[in-house]
């Protein structure tokens, strides 16, 4: 299968990062969002990140122009009809994702592969709303997408070997390292990362140490690039809570119970870096 054109559904932080990586690797990209404003904002983010690379001498102005020119803006899912591949990176809500996949199933050619960047929702359930569950797969990129090497490739119950192989090769073309996992709540990355973050929040909640001390201990003692509370702010506290709830509900063990302090911050609207306040305050 020859992949030339990829639609990315959702122009937020993850979607625009995925679009940037695809266009940088030479693919034609259709960047879709419901509102034109969201697409323009996503494209502006890409332009700014590429400009930083130009400033550092890692990219020429000509290359930046070529990458940007490969990205078509869209507010119609119908634009997926001439794409061989779709990566959905919309909001983490199972009903929204099912609705998008139903529409994509109707609008794309039968051979088009439909991937989702979900961080914890069941691939099998999303695939079940389409008439091509064998061509539905999880492709979980990490934030910030242009920097992080990993793609968790999640096989749903019906995902075919052929689809998996195509996604694996695409991941390598994107200069990433695809790693195969099965479809269980939180997959691997978030099943391990989020309980660590949740435990750090419990430690803060119980007054074991200050937030700075907790983060410094993990940075200096474990060589983590960011402390767990700083990372939680970076991911978004609403996303952290949502993933913990998915783990708690899906795996049924109380060790995944979200910390009440995390819930309190989310209820206060302190969602981390994106709202200017989480465990830390951002200007
Ligand atoms: N977008 C794109 N590029 C970025 C970036 C961003 N938001 N932030 C930093 N970069 C780039 C910089 O431009 C720089 O690039 P060059 O090497 O080409 O110059 C490089 O990353 C290093 O950046 P800095 O020197 O400014 O800063 P740093 O060394 O502190 O690295 C970091 C920043 C890469 C974000 C690092 O702190 C880090 O790795 N943090 C942990 C990230 C992490 O754990 N991500 C996973 C989150 S969990 C997830 O995504 C899954 C989920 O479902 C919740």
Automatic annotation (TrEMBL):
Query: Its annotated pathway?
Result: Lipid metabolism; butanoate metabolism
Keywords tagged on the record: Oxidoreductase
Task: Indicate the enzyme's highest-level EC class.
Answer: oxidoreductase
Work out whether the entry's keyword set contains Oxidoreductase.
Answer: yes
Which EC number(s) are documented for this chain? 1.1.1.157
A molecular function (GO) term: 3-hydroxybutyryl-CoA dehydrogenase activity
Pinpoint the 3-hydroxyacyl-CoA dehydrogenase NAD binding domain residues.
Answer: 5-183
Task: Supply the InterPro entries for this chain.
Answer: 3-OHacyl-CoA_DH, 3-OHacyl-CoA_DH_CS, 3-OHacyl-CoA_DH_NAD-bd, 3HC_DH_C, 6-PGluconate_DH-like_C_sf, 6PGD_dom2, NAD(P)-bd_dom_sf
Q: Where is the 3-hydroxyacyl-CoA dehydrogenase C-terminal domain?
A: 186-282
Under NCBIfam families, the record lists: PRK05808.1 (NF004474), PRK07530.1 (NF005715), PRK07819.1 (NF005875)
For this chain, the family text in UniProt reads: Belongs to the 3-hydroxyacyl-CoA dehydrogenase family.
Q: What name goes with this protein?
A: 3-hydroxybutyryl-CoA dehydrogenase
């Amino acid at each position: 299968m020859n992949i030339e054109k990829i639609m990315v559904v959702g122009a937020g932080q993850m979607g625009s990062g995925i679009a940037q990586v695809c266009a940088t690797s030479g693919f034609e990209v259709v960047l879709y969002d419901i509102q034109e404003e969201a697409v323009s904002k996503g494209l502006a983010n890409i332009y700014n990140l590429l400009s930083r690379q130009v400033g550092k001498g890692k990219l020429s102005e000509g290359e930046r122009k070529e990458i940007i020119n490969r990205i078509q803006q869209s507010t119609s899912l119908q634009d997926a009809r001439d794409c061989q591949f779709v990566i959905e990176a919309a909001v983490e809500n199972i009903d929204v994702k099912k609705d998008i996949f139903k529409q994509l199933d109707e609008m794309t050619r039968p051979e088009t592969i439909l991937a989702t960047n979900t961080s914890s929702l069941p691939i099998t359930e999303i695939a079940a709303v389409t008439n091509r569950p064998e061509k539905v797969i999880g492709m979980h990129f990490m934030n910030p997408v242009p920097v992080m090497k990993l793609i968790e490739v999640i096989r749903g119950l019906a995902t075919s070997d052929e689809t998996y192989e195509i996604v694996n090769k695409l991941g390598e073309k994107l200069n990433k390292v695809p790693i195969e996992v099965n479809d269980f709540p939180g997959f691997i990355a978030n099943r391990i990362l989020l309980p660590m973050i949740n435990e750090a929040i419990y430690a803060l909640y119980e007054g074991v140490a200050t937030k700075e001390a907790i983060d410094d201990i993990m940075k200096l003692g474990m060589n983590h690039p960011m402390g767990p509370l700083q990372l939680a702010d970076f991911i978004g506290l609403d996303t952290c809570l949502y993933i913990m709830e998915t783990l708690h509900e899906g795996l049924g063990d109380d060790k995944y119970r979200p910390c009440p302090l995390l819930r309190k911050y989310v209820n206060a609207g302190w969602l981390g870096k994106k709202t200017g306040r989480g465990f830390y305050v951002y200007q």
